[in-house]
Amino acid sequence: MEERPETELISIPATPRASTPETLTPSGQRSPRPATAAKSSASSFISPRFLSPIGTPMKRVLINMKGYLEEVGHLTKLNPQDAWLPITESRNGNAHYAAFHNLNAGVGFQALVLPVAFSFLGWSWGILSLTIAYFWQLYTLWILVQLHEAVPGKRYNRYVELAQAAFGERLGVWLALFPTVYLSAGTATALILIGGETMKMFFQIVCGPLCSSNPLTTVEWYLVFTSLCIV
């Protein structure tokens, strides 16, 4: 029998070393090594290859399951914009926190003009108006707490979203946008007027006739108070 020549066995490493400029193909030919091979081998210990084929499908499954639960109603649907601020991202609130913040927002500024209102209305009409406003505020507070985050449901962090859920997409925007802008702009303007005039009176009382040679005008005191609020 004729002896067959022994074939040369070529061992191909699974991962080429960084020092080898070339790699061997299964046919035995040499091919230039790509430039990104060194980077992948250097970062292989940071991100193992066995994680990529498993992590991607699992991530898709979790995302699809979360979307399904949000559509069905078994999971509270969250707004991605809520993650921009810690106060809207937090999920540790309760009815007591909601009542505290709503009372501060609804009664804090009104308490400043309460003496002025009583001076015009008198004690009888002033107490009656204050009682009606109290029960109205309590009713709206109860509605906001009940509709804030129903489980399952959607979390409402803004009055516009709450109005859209109650009156529809377009009508809710028109009904909530004007009162919100009016309340925000009116409250800010009133606070600037009260703060500027108060600072002017305080400066006149403390400084007295010593600083009356070139005093600031009322508009300038408004600008001073606004600058202090910004700072």
TrEMBL record:
Keywords, ordered alphabetically: Amino-acid transport, Membrane, Transmembrane, Transmembrane helix, Transport
Keyword Secreted: no
Residues annotated as transmembrane: 112-136, 171-194
Pfam family, one: Aa_trans
Amino acid transporter transmembrane domain span: 92-230
Highest taxon listed in the record's lineage: Eukaryota
Region (Disordered): 1-41
One biological process term in Gene Ontology: amino acid transport
Annotated Polar residues bias: 17-30
Cellular component, GO annotation: membrane
Subcellular compartments: Membrane
Protein name as it appears in the record: Lysine histidine transporter-like
Native source species: Actinidia chinensis var. chinensis
